[in-house]
Specification:
alpha/beta
Length: 506
């Protein structure tokens, strides 16, 4: 009597989180294969991959599983390959995905063996029924577990309790106790961002000073932005992207300030690409005077931008290529001005204005906002109304359309409250000038913060200038300023009383 040909098997192993348990699956499946008198010719392993798919979410992403299907489809052995797994739920927890597997195995006559849930002959109706039933049971097990976990999370969220997970920056591992050094850094970063500093520059400074993420990594503009936008920083509990009340942990950023920061960082007009480092005060910020005169942008000129390599922007005999401001739309046909000279002149004006007694108070409104507490109370009232409306909808007391209308009304009001907070807290670009020498403070600021100061205190309009020496030109003026004419620059104060005379470029 001839000896039966041993069947070859492909072994599939899967673990949703990490590799712990893979060795056990392999050991049990290998022992089972040996009892069958078979041998394993290929192994496919997916780690950190679930076989479960939420309704409407599409199939799970398992690279080795797909490779196994391709391996089975290409099988040409006289005795077809078998499929070996620890349990049927290692192969599938999604009934729709299981149908593809069933088709491949049935058409190719590939038997399925598991160490814990038995064998399946998918060429027979009984085998297919058992397989489908076990897959549905596996899907239900995960679905029900998710439902229980979600219910516990909702309950914890409503009570303001931490839901667990990775240690949040600014807090200890319990998610509640504040880490003073990190909390202070986050609060300072909020002030700096509101004052006009870029997140990219803050991230670089943090990396240089040894401030790391909660996992010990380096900061980027993206990770810093994500951290600063968290409602937990303001002591607010969030669930599924919605604020649902006060949290059990203390805030590390005052709520009004955080809401202003959120309004700033989520502004669609905000430049989000880090790009190249800023070099010029007025690129995209100073305005073209001819565009203003023509009324092309509602009483404002188009922004000017800086180009490199413009010759003849210096004084007599100076034909070197230098950076120059010019109209962003009409290029040099409108206005063009030496960028270094214009930035230097605007800086002189800014320092002169901010050196005057009480200058900061003239430009800014008081930081005290008597209505801030009332807005916080109103937010809590809105949250309570939303919860009550959701309960009424669940009880059938209001329709879905009525609930949607209520939520839209409350969302609009919440937007108004956030805008009011932003208007109160965003004015901090001038804070460094409150208690220091204006010139020293200015020289200590980077370009981004200088730009923020300029944007807050003045409007700079570049006017047409005559060619050649300006009126009153002297050789001494030419050594420092070339042919730059301050009379061709109009600077308007943003708020407060009329400014003192601008300094003379001399």
């Amino acid at each position: 009597m001839s000896t039966p040909t041993p069947r070859d098997y492909v072994l599939y192993l899967r673990k949703s989180k990490g590799r712990a348990g893979i060795a056990r699956q392999r050991r049990d499946a290998t022992t089972h294969c040996e009892r069958l008198g078979g041998r394993i010719v290929a192994e496919f392993v997916d780690t950190d991959r679930t076989a479960f798919a939420k309704v409407g979410a599409g199939p799970s992403q398992r690279d080795d599983y797909q490779a196994m299907l391709d391996f089975l489809r290409a099988d040409t052995r006289p005795l077809p390959l078998g499929v070996l797994a620890w349990h049927a739920d290692r192969l599938h927890r999604d009934p729709s995905e299981a149908e593809t597997f069933l088709t491949v195995c049935a058409s190719g006559h590939h038997p399925v063996e598991t160490a814990r849930s038995g064998n399946y002959d998918l060429t027979t109706p009984t085998g297919r029924k058992r397989f489908r039933t076990d897959v549905v049971d596996a899907a239900y097990e995960v679905d029900h577990m998710i439902e229980r976990i979600e219910s516990m999370k909702v309950e914890a969220a409503r009570e303001g309790r931490w839901l667990g997970g990775r240690r949040p920056f600014g807090y200890e591992a319990d998610g509640v106790t504040v880490r003073p050094a990190e909390a202070a850094a986050a609060d300072q970063a909020a002030d700096q961002a509101l004052g006009g500093r870029t997140l990219n520059s803050i991230a670089k400074e943090w990396n240089a000073s040894g401030i790391t993420t909660s996992t010990g990594g380096k900061w980027t503009e993206v990770t810093l932005r994500r951290m600063l936008l968290r409602p937990r920083n303001a002591g607010i509990m969030e669930h599924r992207g919605e604020e649902i009340g006060r949290a059990e942990w203390p805030a590390i950023i005052e709520e009004t300030k955080w809401r202003a920061l959120r309004a700033l960082l989520t502004d669609p007009a905000r430049r989000t690409s880090p790009g190249n480092a800023r070099r010029w005060l007025g690129s995209g910020q100073f305005e073209c005077g001819i565009c203003e005169e023509l009324g092309e942008r509602d009483q404002h000129g188009r922004p000017v931008t800086v180009i490199a390599g413009t010759s003849g922007m210096g004084g007599k005999g100076d034909r070197a290529s230098v950076p120059a401001y010019r109209c962003s739309e009409h290029k040099a046909s409108h206005v063009i001005r030496n960028a270094e000279h214009l930035d230097k002149y605007v800086s002189m004006v800014a320092v002169e204005w901010l050196s005057q007694p009480g200058a900061v108070e003239l430009f800014t409104t008081s930081g005290e906002d008597p209505t801030a507490h009332a807005r916080a109370v109103e937010r809590e009232t809105l949250r309570a109304r939303e919860r009550e409306a959701a309960q009424m909808f669940a009880a059938g007391q209001i329709t879905g359309a009525q609930l949607a209308e209520m939520n839209a009304t409350w969302a609009a009001r919440r937007f108004e409250l956030d805008a009011a907070d932003a208007a109160t807290a965003r004015r901090s670009a001038l804070d460094p000038f409150r208690n220091g020498d204006a010139r020293q403070v200015w020289e200590g600021l980077d370009v981004d913060r200088r730009r923020a100061v300029i944007a807050e205190i003045m409007r700079v309009v570049v006017l047409p200038a005559k060619r050649g020496k300006p009126k009153g030109w002297t050789p001494e003026h030419g050594k420092k300023w070339g042919y730059f004419d301050p009379a061709s620059i109009r600077i308007e104060r943003r708020e407060g009383e009329a400014p003192a005379p601008s300094p003379t470029a001399g």
